[in-house]
Amino acid sequence: MRVINLKKVKEKIFYEKLENGLDVYIVKKENFKTNSVRFFTNFGGLDLEFIPNKEKEMVKMPSGIAHFLEHKLFETNSRVKVDEFFQKNGSYINAFTNYKKTCYHFKCNKNFKEQLIYFLDFIQTPYFTDKNVKKEKGIIKQEALMTLDDPDRKFYQKMFENVFNNLNYDKTVVGSLEDIESITKEDLYKCYNTFYHPKNMCLLIVTNQDEKEIFDIIKDNQSKKDYSKKYKLIKKEYVENDEVSKPYEIIYENVKENRVCYSIKIDSSIFNMDREKLDFYLDFILFSNLSNYSKFNLDLKKKKIINKNITYSVSFNKTSHKEYIMISILSVSDNIDKYIKLLEKKLNNLTFSKEDFILIKKSIISDSLYMFNSVDGIMNYLYNDYMFNKKISSKSFDKAFELSYEETIKVLNKISNKNKSILIMKPKKDK
Amino acid sequence: MEYKKYVIDNVEIYTYKTDKFKTIKINMMFINEYSSEDILYNNLLNKVLYKSTKTCNDEIKMNKKYMELYSPGLRIFDMYKNISEKNFQYTFLNEKYTEKEQNKNNIDFLFDIIFNPNIKNKKFEKNNFLLCKNDLKINYNLALENPNFLVDINSFSNISEDLPSKILMSTDIKKLDDINEKNLYNYYINFLNTSSLKIFIVGDINEKQIINILKDKLKNFKFKNNDLEIQEYTLINKSITNEIRMHKDFNQSILKLIYKVLNITDYERKYVFPLFNIILGGNNFKLYKNVREKNSLSYYIYSRYNKFESIFSIECGIKKENYNKTLSIIYKQLKNMQESIISNKELRNAKELIIASENNIYDNLNSILSELINVSHLKTDDNEEYIKKIKSVKISDIVNLANKINLDVLFFLEGN
């Protein structure tokens, strides 16, 4: 067992890689009653083409397969249903799937060890039948229809689709109605056997119990399960163009207000910097120039060029040969052309002061203190750190305290909007 | 819950000390009578106060101030019962983790937000006022794009009783045009003059220090003695179901039923109603099992109850062709509850969920604050007593309540 010390917040994370390859991280919070667990696999909505475990040929799965599998893992061969088991302990259990991960989670305040074992067992014992797969289709189709009525979700997906050429962002996480209908139990087993190997998974725990005892319980549980040591995951590698997939598009939906998204695609290697620090610096620059902290944003609102504060997101997207940063800048506007013109001008004249740097760094440090204020906050920290770095370390935490103004300026000077994609969503009546 | 109460002039202050958290939470609750016309004024006032003060007179300066104070969080919101409660809920990092004097600086800022707004010549400052007004309109339009919000507006506004939730959902956003910088200012002054104030504080606090700070801050204000009593709604009249159908260009249809519970007793309201709600519409209980799991008709189905107003609602997203089938399953499940087809396991599991949630209260500063407000202001049982009473509820109690229900609104948003 290795101890990861987060000295700034006086917290410790206990870590061990088990013999079967599973990464386990535990944070002990003695004076909290709540125990919280997340168990996730690196299998999400984008993972559609891969060589199934113990096979040789690449296969292509229907969209929505990771999400469908998440639903079906709650099915067991036992008379006691998964939900009922947790319910009788007053516990909360759920799961979610995003583009890159499928995550199962539960929270409880009694019988933790018994529930932890059950939790690991049901996720690691799939039970798919033609009948239970068919039953789920009606439910998931309703979920898909519900998401189709959410314009912001559609907009978000389209934003990625128009920036990336080949990464499957044209598919939704829930899947199309046709693809959901086509999924079989054989597909599910194939995906399960490929992506749910412990080497491709991670277990995060925040608990009031003794960490050594919990590690022992997990090790004992995992040692009884047979996983091949030769496991190797081969996913299709996509070659991505430097250019965006669609530079400009207007879509029409059931909305009352126009949305505008201005996205920029940048090859991350041009910054030649640790990605975590880079993420902080990009956030600093965008926050001070575009958010409701900026004069630019306030002026646009006063002149009614935008109707909502500008928001932004930064994502890192790995492809076979490069990593691309996607910066998306969003707002609501009745004066779209003017807004885009002024935004472009601003992006070509980004500024950043020392005063901004001191204030923003201060708020980042306070955020980390807020994070370690509750069981949910700690769990979110662990999950986000693992999502971003594929491991949890004290280094990533300390980086927030090591940022410099000079480095921020270096990053600022390299941001270019040369490679952009503009997406506009308007009411259907305007078509 | 062991809390302390202090009274400074007419202001009641309740504190609960816990050293589990790095933050402190303060809730300033202004209690007032209200009429339906106040809702839009309140919404706009909350926004205007949030966005600037006399000293930080625009959004940028406000944001800088927040960052200087180590990013405190503020929520301003109203709760409507038979009275209105305007809450300023402020969370900040304890000075033990930041710098000396930060507790006082944060309380100063909160008082600035509430009592020192951005006013010029007895009007709210125009630029900030107009931005807030526009923001409120846009937010309302964006909310209307959400089919579930559309369903809430069109179902709750058709309830047969004049309940706060009906009044809230019937608010006409067009009336926002009648509010200007001057009449909002008048409203604000009247609000301060007619309110009584209660303050709730939780966290790792030095009570003496906090009370002294508050004493000093409150010395220039005079608040009313609180003479308003919170009264729950007991509904007596049976109503004929109001059936409403609306067509919209959505992919999914949404079914919503709103029920009144007639002649509810105090015991039922507090202890039986929450269990009834879980057994009917909780995750993996009757509706979920039968509508979703057995018949694959929906992805979500749930019930929600409002114990204060004695109503509950059921909502699910379905295919429009499955309207009759879904409705008949919902009716069947309610009939089962009326005919005592409730298993011991269902009751036991529902109790476990409530007990677990009560046992988690002290793990979260938000829920500790809610508990402090519930016990001291709403005079509810503390959580140990509440758990004891929940454990004593019998199946026959649930059946009795199930036989008091009256379908008031049956709403269907029909998609394509």
Write the layout of secondary structure elements.
The complex is a heterodimer of chains A (431) and B (416).
Chain A: E1 2-6, E2 11-17, E3 23-28, E4 35-41, E5 49-51, E6 59-60, H1 65-72, H2 82-88, E7 92-97, E8 102-108, H3 112-123, H4 130-148, H5 151-163, H6 177-182, H7 185-195, E9 201-207, H8 211-223, E10 234-235, E11 248-253, E12 259-267, H9 275-290, H10 295-302, E13 311-318, E14 323-332, H11 336-347, H12 354-371, H13 375-389, H14 394-399, H15 405-414, E15 420-427
Parallel strand pairs in A: 3-9, 11-15
Antiparallel strand pairs in A: 1-2, 2-3, 4-8, 4-9, 5-6, 5-10, 7-8, 12-14, 12-15, 13-14
Helix pairs in contact in A: 1-7, 3-8, 9-15
Chain B: E1 4-8, E2 11-17, E3 23-32, H1 38-51, H2 59-68, E4 73-80, E5 84-93, H3 102-115, E6 119-120, E7 123-124, H4 126-144, H5 147-156, H6 164-169, H7 181-194, E8 196-203, H8 207-218, E9 242-247, E10 253-261, H9 266-281, H10 286-294, E11 301-306, E12 311-318, H11 323-338, H12 344-359, H13 365-376, H14 383-391, H15 395-402, E13 405-414
Parallel strand pairs in B: 2-8, 9-13
Antiparallel strand pairs in B: 1-2, 3-5, 3-8, 4-5, 6-7, 10-12, 10-13, 11-12
Keyword list:
heterodimer; A: alpha+beta; Cytochrome Bc1 Complex, Chain A, domain 1; seven-stranded mixed sheet; 22% strand; globular; B: alpha+beta; 13 strands; 44% helix
What this model shows, in words?
The complex is a heterodimer of chains A (431) and B (416). Chain A is of the alpha+beta class. Chain A has two domains: 2-235, Cytochrome Bc1 Complex, Chain A, domain 1 (2-Layer Sandwich); 248-430, Metalloenzyme, LuxS/M16 peptidase-like (Cytochrome Bc1 Complex, Chain A, domain 1). Chain A is built from 15 helices and 15 strands. Chain A has helices at residues 65-72, 82-88, 112-123, 130-148, 151-163, 177-182, 185-195, 211-223, 275-290, 295-302, 336-347, 354-371, 375-389, 394-399, 405-414, and strands at residues 2-6, 11-17, 23-28, 35-41, 49-51, 59-60, 92-97, 102-108, 201-207, 234-235, 248-253, 259-267, 311-318, 323-332, 420-427. A seven-stranded mixed sheet of chain A has the order 1-2-3-9-4-8-7, sandwiched between helices. A five-stranded mixed sheet of chain A has the order 11-15-12-14-13, sandwiched between helices. In chain A, helix 1 (65-72) crosses helix 7 (185-195) and helix 3 (112-123) packs parallel to helix 8. The longest helix of chain A is centred in the N-terminal third of the chain and has 19 residues, at 130-148. The N and C termini of chain A lie far apart (61 Å). The N and C termini of chain B lie far apart (52 Å). Chain B is globular and about 60 Å long. In chain B, helix 12 packs antiparallel against helix 14 (383-391). Chain B has helices spanning 38-51, 59-68, 102-115, 126-144, 147-156, 164-169, 181-194, 207-218, 266-281, 286-294, 323-338, 344-359, 365-376, 383-391, 395-402, and strands spanning 4-8, 11-17, 23-32, 73-80, 84-93, 119-120, 123-124, 196-203, 242-247, 253-261, 301-306, 311-318, 405-414. The model of chain B has no long low-confidence stretch (mean pLDDT 95). Chain B has two domains: 4-218, Metalloenzyme, LuxS/M16 peptidase-like (Cytochrome Bc1 Complex, Chain A, domain 1); 242-414, 2-Layer Sandwich (Cytochrome Bc1 Complex, Chain A, domain 1).
